[in-house]
Design brief:
By secondary structure, this protein is mostly helical. The chain has 3 domains: 321 residues, no CATH class; 151 residues, Four Helix Bundle (Hemerythrin (Met), subunit A); 150 residues. Helix 6 packs antiparallel against helix 7, helix 20 crosses helix 23 and helix 25 runs parallel beside helix 27. The longest helix has 30 residues. It is globular, with a radius of gyration of 27 Å.
């Protein structure tokens, strides 16, 4: 017999969108989050068993499960709002749900209204998103499941379980205060070191390194600035970290200029950045002797100057805070930001659209289970809540992964419910299953679902004592919820079939045109304002990459349309790089471009944006670029011409 072929036969080859959905994401696992889950979920059940109230213990363990889902293992100051605030919303949800339990159409109306509010507030931000999720989840549970004790027992127990996760997360705060923030900034420095190492290499390696720097900068600024409005001016450590983040920005800006030169940087340059990263992480403030070679070009002078400035900031123990706000912009007071968020939610068409979409599906589910007797009917709405969360990505992808993850989780749950007797044996079982939730969450939504399913089924069985009889209804309810989400939350909404990459890309090109004018035009802005514009541009491009990756998980034709945009996404990123490189070269001695050149490039960019915005696939932009070949804007003109070529028909 001959050797079997390694490839699938053509008819059996899985489609790309399915492979992308099933592929595990390469992400680090937080050991501390794993340990917290292993303690926080089994402990309430053990206390309930010890006091003769396992049902109370199960409720508290469900609250701890909500806390584990909310736990980001981020900086300590960030953990307080990200875990505590969602627990308050969860308490409100379980209270509302329990009050309408068994009240027929009143329960349908109440849960549908909560779904509308949940969907709308999810657009505010990350904490509001999790809060809206728990508000709806707990309301569905309260409306569909008879809860033990008085009406206030369930919210108190579930909130207590969630706050247990917070307490465990804050135990090391006195000993490790500021460590997560310093680690985030140090990781950004290391990412910049890898970017400088990629200078002069392949375009793919450089683009990947630059994207990693953008993500790291976004994460570091989000982490350090989480409580900046309250802490700024009173926290020397916070001020110093902000100054260190600001100081690495000129190094990032100098990288495109060095990369356009085509030659790799000496190895001492990226090694110096890694040396600075170690100083940031340890808080070292002594002298640092950077062994940098003498610069020979405008680009290498820019890198050298930026690195020496960064080293000076990193090793300065007392940083003057006056320049921090100039560079980043001072955030509004908490009350102003809350009022602004509320106004945006109530007036935003997208917020109402998301809320109505979620409310429609939840309303259909609640109506269906009110008309037809469905065992454990609350699982239908729970499935829809997870699948249709509007800020969680592709509805189609999540419905598919939810179904597959549920099947995988039921296999584990079947073994647990059949072989493990209810009682004290549940505690070591949860001790083994609970850590899988944070460990698998980083791998993808389907993996998270597979980890959560056996835990929630075991806790539900403690409350209901149905054993393996829970399994088939759980599968049917999940598949029914996925079907409702796909039909009423996906197929009935035309926006689901179109990727938003094109519109967002066009906005980024328009912003790039303004950036060019702000960097070189007659109305050029000051360096701090330029830095903010550049940070905003790269943050938006990073969001576009995320949107692109989500769109690729959609089935045809949406996935194919998204794939067609990828070359232009890369081209726009290079246009921004070329603009930054030109500004850096001018700062370090290159002749500035003429006003006519700047106007022409900006016009070209706006025409490109218009072409992207007005067509499902971009049409050609035919205006030619001209200018002196030795101009500092020549690389930028070449990148714009390359983007124009991508949009032209072949």
């Amino acid at each position: 017999m001959g050797r079997m072929p390694r490839e699938f036969p053509i008819g059996l080859t899985p489609p790309d969108w399915l492979v992308r959905n099933l592929r595990a994401q390469p992400a680090p696992v937080s050991r501390s989050a794993v340990v917290r889950a292993a303690i926080a979920i089994p402990l309430p059940l053990a206390l309930g068993l010890a006091t003769g109230r396992p049902d109370y213990g199960a409720l508290a363990a469900m609250g701890a499960l909500n806390g584990v889902i909310s736990d980001t293992a981020a900086a300590y100051r960030v953990r307080i709002p990200t875990i505590a605030i969602p627990q308050l919303f969860g308490a409100v949800g379980i209270t509302l749900g329990s009050l309408v339990h068994g009240h027929g159409w009143a329960a349908v109306a109440a849960v549908t209204g909560v779904a509308l509010v949940s969907g709308m507030i999810s657009t505010i931000g990350a904490v509001a998103s999790v809060s809206g999720l728990l508000l709806l989840l707990t309301c569905v549970v309260g409306a569909g499941l008879p809860l033990p004790g008085a009406w206030w027992h369930a919210p108190l127990l579930m909130s207590g379980g969630g706050l247990l996760v917070l307490v465990l997360g804050l135990l090391a705060w006195p000993l490790r205060m500021g460590v997560p923030e310093r680690s985030a900034v140090a990781d950004t420095y290391r990412a910049v070191g890898e970017l400088l190492r990629a200078v002069g290499g392949t375009s793919r390696a450089y683009d990947d390194a630059r994207h990693a720097v953008t993500q790291s900068l976004n994460q570091s600024y989000d982490t350090v600035l989480a409580h900046r409005a309250r802490q700024h001016g009173r926290s020397p450590e916070l001020t110093r970290l902000l100054a260190q983040l600001n100081a690495i920005t000129p190094v990032v800006e100098s990288a495109p200029a060095a990369h356009l030169g085509g030659s790799p940087l000496p190895p001492e340059v990226p090694e110096s950045v890694r040396h600075l990263a170690s100083a940031v992480e340890t808080g070292y403030t002594g002298p640092i002797g950077l062994k940098l070679p003498a610069p020979t070009t405008e680009a290498t002078r820019a890198v050298d100057h930026a690195l020496r400035h960064a080293a000076e900031v990193v090793t300065t123990p007392d940083v003057d805070p006056r320049g921090i706000d100039d560079r980043l912009g001072r955030p509004a007071a908490l009350g102003i930001r809350a009022a602004r968020a509320l106004r945006n939610v109530t007036l935003s068409a997208a917020s109402w659209r998301y809320g109505l979409r979620l409310a429609l599906c939840i309303g259909l589910a609640q109506t269906l289970v009110s008309i037809i007797a469905v065992p454990r009917s609350y699982w239908v709405a729970l499935t829809i809540t997870f699948v249709l969360k509007p800020d969680f990505g592709s509805v189609f992808s999540r419905a598919l992964l939810r179904a597959l993850g549920t099947v995988a989780g039921l296999v584990i749950a079947a073994a647990v419910l059949a072989q493990v007797p209810r009682g004290w044996a549940d505690v070591p079982t949860l001790l083994l299953l609970a850590p899988l939730i944070p460990a698998f969450t980083a791998r993808g939504y389907g993996y998270q679902t597979a980890a959560i399913t056996p835990v929630i089924l075991l806790l539900s069985d403690v409350l209901n004592r149905e054993g393996t009889d829970l399994l088939l209804p759980r599968l049917v309810d999940s598949l029914l919820g996925c079907a409702i989400a796909l039909v009423a939350g996906y197929l009935l909404w035309p926006e689901s079939w179109h990727t938003r990459v094109g519109d967002r890309l066009a906005d980024a090109v328009d912003d790039t045109a303004r950036y060019v004018e702000s960097a070189f035009g007659p109305a050029a802005v000051d360096p701090p304002a330029r830095a903010r514009m550049r940070r905003g541009l790269y943050r938006n491009l990073s969001a576009i990459r995320t949107e692109f990756q989500r769109a690729l998980t959609e089935p045809p034709p949406t996935g194919r349309r998204a794939a067609a945009w990828w070359p232009l996404v890369v081209a726009v990123e290079r246009i921004v790089d070329a603009t930054t490189a030109a500004r850096v070269r001018v700062k370090h001695g290159a002749p500035p471009p003429s006003a006519n050149e700047v106007t022409q490039v900006a016009r070209q960019l706006r025409e490109l944006a218009q072409g992207v915005r007005e067509a499902d696939t971009p049409y050609p932009v035919r205006t030619d670029l001209t200018g002196p070949p030795d101009s500092v804007l020549e690389p930028l003109r070449q990148e714009v011409a390359a983007a124009r070529a991508i949009t032209s028909p072949h």
